[in-house]
Amino acid sequence: MENDKQLKHISKFLSLVLRHKPETINIQLDENGWAEVDELIEKSNRKGVQFNRATLHHVVETNVKKRFAFNDSLDKIRASQGHSLQVELGYKNQKPPEILFHGTGEQSKQSILKKGLIRKARQHVHLSSDITTAKMVGQRHGKPFIFKVAALEMYNDNFAFFISENGVWLTDNVPSKYLRTE
């Protein structure tokens, strides 16, 4: 089995290919974001990112953020969320908890308070059901700042919410009136 550094490299490469740039290895994702496992392995290996089916399964199973998922027959793989590509993940609108959390960097606080949370290049805004996860996300952007999102209020105002296979809550945007900073 590959070492941790190699596994992290493979995981990052899979994120690039399955979330943002499948053209990196010249594969096509279907409309739901699925890629054929055998083709992914073959074309990744040709591009110099070496792994086999066992390693791929290990990366999917051990990824702390559960970024990837296999279909039931294990012959297709996709990213669970975070795409900058248009894919239909097939998630159904679900009633969220009363409060969700969004972690960001302290330097983004004022801009977000003015504009709300917008998805930018991604398909959705990502929200966490727990403050610990939001804090870890925020730390990637410098000193973390956590917004509380009045998710149930948004839902009652006809905003759609989805939950990804790895437990990340998704919505199209969060207007600033639903953000709490206390």
From TrEMBL:
Entry keyword set: NAD, Transferase
EC number per UniProt: 2.7.1.-
Top-tier EC class: transferase
Domain of life: Bacteria
Presence of the UniProt keyword Amino-acid biosynthesis in the record: no
PANTHER family hit by this protein: PUTATIVE PHOSPHOTRANSFERASE, TRNA 2'-PHOSPHOTRANSFERASE 1
NCBIfam families from the UniProt entry: PRK00819.1-4
Function according to Swiss-Prot or TrEMBL: Removes the 2'-phosphate from RNA via an intermediate in which the phosphate is ADP-ribosylated by NAD followed by a presumed transesterification to release the RNA and generate ADP-ribose 1''-2''-cyclic phosphate (APPR>P). May function as an ADP-ribosylase.
Family, as annotated: Belongs to the KptA/TPT1 family.
Protein name: Probable RNA 2'-phosphotransferase
